[in-house]
């Protein structure tokens, strides 16, 4: 199944911050005590509260990019993602996995600036594919709230406002690349039991799909399989047509980062099965027609320093220091 097209909608043009493509390489970390990234469902109540509070704190910090007035550091993440999706520079090519690995790390660092001391956490949609709406990530108190509602006012017919949970009053600035302030929105895809399809397109990240993804032993086959489905299925299943997880500004929804931390975990597990050959496995053709190399630059458009792929291939080396629980 191919769901990637559902999350790569056309973005409207906005003025881009200067992207000079110059990179200051980070100093290599000595990774002797890596942080452990946890499953949200297994985190303590205190850990969940701390994470949620830090996300809310990002909405009080001024934008680093200052593209539009009254924007926040939280808005910057949706903006950068949308701008790098049109034209495609971070999807549908080899850099998809290392770029999003770096993006999650930039987000984690931003949470630390808000007092959070833990690591990024993930939503284990692999184990919850049959009934994803029952996941602890949607808890209205210690989670991210539930689905959007047609009855909620203020968003208009194009969006479904989230009406419960700690992020119900979140007002992202960007929608599909344009300046369009709105309430946080979700549009869960309904299940179709008669066709064997769970809600949120759960069969797009069920055992059969995951077995197929993990059957690939070379990066140039593994990364597109992971990106299309399950990755794309989760975006489409949660965001639908009227939710923030669907358009290119999907980081508007804080669940984006738990989703992409899980994508990163699947990649990490694939690397761990053959670390000698897979840790720095990076090959394929970029969207500009050039062969991908470990020296490829990963733009962040001023949100953080541009990165180099090589520095983000090993989670216990280069610029990183973490493992998964």
From TrEMBL:
It comes from the Eukaryota. InterPro entries: Di-copper_centre_dom_sf (IPR008922), Tyrosinase/Hemocyanin (IPR050316), Tyrosinase_Cu-bd (IPR002227). Keywords: Copper, Metal-binding, Signal. It holds the Pfam family Tyrosinase. The keyword Disulfide bond does not apply. Residues 1-15 form the signal peptide. Residues 91-108, 253-264 form the Tyrosinase copper-binding domain. GO terms for molecular function: metal ion binding; oxidoreductase activity. The keyword Cytoplasm does not apply. This is Tyrosinase copper-binding domain-containing protein. It comes from Rhypophila decipiens.
